Amino acid sequence: MKRFALILATLAVTLSLAACGSRSIGNKIDDQFLGPDVASSISNAHADLSSPTSRIVVTAYNGVILIAGQTPRSELKDLAAQRARNVQGVKKVYNELQVQQPASLLARSNDSLLTSKIKTQMLADSNVPSTKIKVITENGIVYLLGVVNRSEANAATAVVQSVSGVQKVVRLFEYTN
Length: 177
Prior knowledge:
Protein name: BON domain-containing protein
Organism: Ectopseudomonas khazarica
Structural class: alpha/beta
Pfam family, one: BON
InterPro entries: BON_dom, Lipoprotein_DolP, Transpt-assoc_nodulatn_dom_bac
Keywords: Signal
């Protein structure tokens, strides 16, 4: 019953946002389930990928997967990407895991604040199609995903670069031109 309610809630949110971007409703629904499927596959791959020694953040956008966070060993980073690629529906995987100890609670709080600032600035800028761009911040690094044209990507990047505290911007866009 809970799964049915979750599916209905996801469908309602997705339908309400359907007019806010160029992706189909089907793509949006697929992404709602693809991210958790990939995260589950990664965490089941090795005990250290689901333990406090690793922090794994998985994001899906239009079948593209971003794996960010931290893990203690490079072989775990490689294993996470391998597991993500094997999940049905995954088109491409960006493995941005860092081989280091997990970010502190303070760093994660700062990341949330940065993401909020960036999204607010994007909403205020008419040159940025904020509904077509997903913003993920991990350890001060801002990842941008979306289906945009090059001028929209450049405008979004400029907004991110103007926000104080951003360490680096990584563009993972799919370009329409």
